[in-house]
Structure formats: C-alpha cells, structure tokens
Write a structure and sequence with these properties.
- It contains seven helices and no strands.
- By secondary structure, the chain is an all-alpha fold.
- It has one domain.
Length: 141
C-alpha cells in the first residue's frame, strides 16, 4: 500500500508541477515553485501532509515494539524536491532555456485561465468540506 501511495503521489505532483511551470516568472527560484504548488493545490498538499503524518505514526508504533520500519516517507517538502521534474527544473541549464523562451504575454494569458480553473475547483472543494462539517455537527435527538 505504501509503495502504491508513493507512486500515485509522484504522478499527481508531477502533473501539478507541470501545470504550474508556465506560471513561473522568467527568472525564478526553486522556492517559488513550492509556493505556487501550495497556493493552487492546497487540498492536495494537505493530503500529502496527512499521508506523511499517518505513515510516521505507523512507523512510530513499529519502532515502539522493536519492529522494522516499513514506511520511511520523506517530509512533504523533501518529497517534492526529490521528484524528477523538480530536479530538472532546478538545473541552471533548464533555467537559462526557460528564460530564453519566456513570453510574458503567454504567461499572463495562461495565468488567467489557470487561476480561473483552479480557484473554482478549490472553492467547490471548500464548499463540499463546509457542508460535510455542518452535517457532522448536526446531532439528531
């Protein structure tokens, strides 16, 4: 199960990062990519953190009973840093090529479309979470 979760998370976050790539300015730092990821994919980021916490708890229980640790998941930030796409984006060769091909007009257009799409998805998800919280708080006599 652990391996499947990690592989699935790898694929998902590779896709998210590739979607965010065009939002980067012509000259960017690696931390800007992480900020954009957390900004536009907050629920997915939260799920990654929850998986990390769950696997840490499992490992902690195993270590208390002197058993071999099975799930040594890296922290969410390290998980992102170890993705192949993130490593490629961090290379200076990629940065210079990106800067050379950068088009501000295209970036603005893409940002408008992307924000509209992501913000509406995030709002719908917030609405669902809010409704679920209200239903959970309702108590029948």
């Amino acid at each position: 199960m652990y391996e499947n979760d990690i592989q699935e998370a790898n694929k998902e976050f590779e896709k998210y990062i590739s979607d965010i790539l065009q939002l980067l300015p012509s000259e960017y730092e690696e931390n800007q990519l992480m900020e954009l990821l957390v900004r536009y994919y907050p629920f997915e980021w939260q799920m990654l953190k929850e998986k990390y916490n769950a696997y840490c708890k499992t490992d902690e229980k195993l270590s208390r009973s002197n058993k071999k640790l099975r799930n040594s998941m890296s922290k969410p930030e390290e998980f992102i840093l170890n993705l192949p796409i993130y490593k490629r984006i961090s290379q200076t060769r990629y940065k210079t090529e990106y800067k050379r091909k950068f088009n501000a007009d295209e970036q603005i257009r893409y940002k408008e479309i992307f924000e509209k799409k992501r913000i509406s998805k995030n709002e719908k998800r917030m609405e669902k979470v809010g409704k679920a919280k209200l239903k959970a708080q309702e108590v029948e006599p």
